[in-house]
Design brief:
Length: 102
């Protein structure tokens, strides 16, 4: 990730499906938040909507989320009809929710 930030992806089964969370660490090594399919969320005492990261980090996290959602077949594969529009709609939804981190 850019600007000294680091991330660790955890994938796990939930019910009959699967999900993921990305633990995001500041340059000083402190966890700043956890990013999931809907952006940053509340966990470990951190309020998702309070997390602020540089735009470049937010963009990278969005890309990671898109890749994970494609693996889980929650977004269409890259290059297929409608995939670009689906990613645009997903990204817009996360940014509009205030959970994107910037």
């Amino acid at each position: 990730m850019s600007e000294g930030y680091k991330a660790r992806i955890d994938c796990f089964n939930i019910g009959l499906g699967s999900s993921f969370e990305v633990h995001v660490y500041a340059p000083n090594g402190k966890e700043v938040g956890i990013y999931g399919a809907d952006g940053f969320f509340n966990k470990h005492g951190t309020i998702g909507s309070d997390v602020k990261v540089p735009k470049s980090v937010s963009d990278t996290l969005n890309g990671i989320a898109v890749d994970e959602l494609r693996k889980m077949r929650k977004l269409p594969p890259k290059g297929t009809p409608g995939s670009r529009q689906a990613v645009k709609e997903y990204t817009k939804k996360v940014k509009k929710s205030g959970q994107s981190g910037c």
